[in-house]
Design brief:
By secondary structure, this protein is mainly alpha-helical. Helix content is 62%, strand content 4%. It binds zinc ion (ZN).
Length: 159
């Protein structure tokens, strides 16, 4: 059981990371969707989905960084240090936002949707259910009555 859960989490994180490397070029929506994949896979609440989606997106960023560096896309700016640094910073900031939106998507997908919509709304009916009402026996006649009742509805005796 525990292993099945671990496997499901690992699969969701890896799938999310793969989705991130492909989708992260689409601003906001790409990371959000990849995060939502992770959140849907791990489920179990907003914070939990956020954590796993952030981890997954971080792995996706790592994979992207490896791809970019290994293919030498940045090499053409190699003798222009300022330009290389600028591109590097843009990629880092872009990745940071990517991870942010991925974790947001993961949190929303992992959250109990019902609890999000209930948030801020009062519960409809606060009256106790019949099985929550306490009953006592009347000391005069032995008739059952509600503990909150002032007088017995059988013999009229006060408590
Ligand atoms: Zn009574």
């Amino acid at each position: 059981m525990e292993w099945g859960r671990r496997f499901r989490e690992a699969a969701a994180v890896l799938l999310g990371a793969a989705a991130y490397t492909v989708l992260s070029w689409v601003p906001i929506a790409g990371p959000f969707i990849s995060g939502a994949i992770v959140g849907y896979g791990v489920s179990g609440g907003f914070k939990r989905g956020m954590r796993w989606a952030a981890l997954s997106a971080g792995m996706g960023c790592g994979a992207l960084a490896y791809l970019i560096l290994s293919t030498g896309i940045l090499a053409w700016g190699g003798n222009q240090i300022v330009l290389s640094a600028f591109i590097g910073w843009v990629l880092i900031v872009y990745s940071a936002f990517g991870v942010l939106f991925a974790s947001l998507g993961g949190g929303i997908a992992a959250a109990d949707i019902g609890s999000i919509f209930r948030f801020g709304f009062p519960k409809g009916d606060e009256r106790p259910r019949p099985d929550e009402i306490e009953y006592v026996l009347c000391p005069s006649c032995g008739h059952g009555r509600k503990a909150s009742a002032k007088a017995c509805d059988s013999c009229g005796g006060q408590r």
